[in-house]
User: What shape does this take?
Amino acid sequence: MIIRTIILFIIIFGLVVISHELGHFLIGRKNGIRVVEFAVGMGPTLFSFMAGGTKCSLKLLPFGGACMFEGEDGLEREKGISEERAESGEGVAFTEAGVWARIATVFAGPFFNFILAFLVAVVLTVFKGADLPVVGLVWEDSAASEAGLQQGDVITKIGHEPIHFYREISMISQLSQGKRMEITYERNGEKAVTTLTPRYSEEDGRYYMGMTDNGAYLDCNPLQAFQYGFYEVEYWVKLTYKSLGMLVRGKVTKDDVAGPVGIAQVVGQTYDQAEENFGTSYAILTMLEIVVLLSVNLGIMNLLPIPALDGGRLVFMLVEVVRGKPVPPEKEGMVHFAGLVVLMVLMVFIMYNDIMRLLR
Assistant: This one.
């Protein structure tokens, strides 16, 4: 079981990371930027080979990857090596490329994560369909009951958020923190609006509206598969942003955050439960759902304006666009280095927390 968990984690995490780094690589090469190394994993190199002037490496630890451009540290600007390679047709250093070429190259990593998430979501929708936001059982003396909701009602909007899946209702209910909300629904083809306030369950430690879904699923045709595949990615984007908001407000504890070890544990447990209850085919589809989740998360996290991440680099490039000249490389490098140190400390803390949780 442990071996299978490790293999599943490497496949899933590797796919997500490779798509991210491939985005940097393809758009960088398209803009004539020379790629020094394309690496999958971190740590010591297991093996490598040269392809098109780029060193392709597989590292020991399957926790990340890198697409390293010539001159990305800013040193080649002073040495003038990029001009020599440009004349020989080998491309230019990262710092010698135009600012918009660099912005496109950096943004491409997270963007390719969203592309991967969308493609996998379309496949999921083809095989699983879409869970429709149709009310099933309404609990007695619940917020939903007092609001007048009935079995068969179709929830179309909560507040200003359009609803496409029933799980969106569950997500909003759980993350509502007891806030009053406006519910728009359809009953017998007619639109209606009501309000309710989710109630807190001491036993479960979360908020409930007080209703369940009725198990309605839409078997999507090819066009609907693309439509609901988009909605699937949108759902995970909204969940990620709402979760980040709770993290900033201190509503998330350290036990709610997971690193590579924690993710691997979740992957293994989820696969085992899905296979035991529904079979291997369903377990594979569940793994694809995790690919969508992780890919969206990696895309969003990398776009945050944090030094050393893609978002932090984009901030410096946008400042360059406004100023008309780049920030001195040594100053930008110091900021990114400080950010990298903080991220590494955070990564060690999260990994330690994952291991302690695993040993409980």
Q: What stands out?
A: The chain has eleven helices and twelve strands. Residues 75-84 have pLDDT under 50 and may be disordered. The chain has two domains: 2-126+294-359, 130-218.
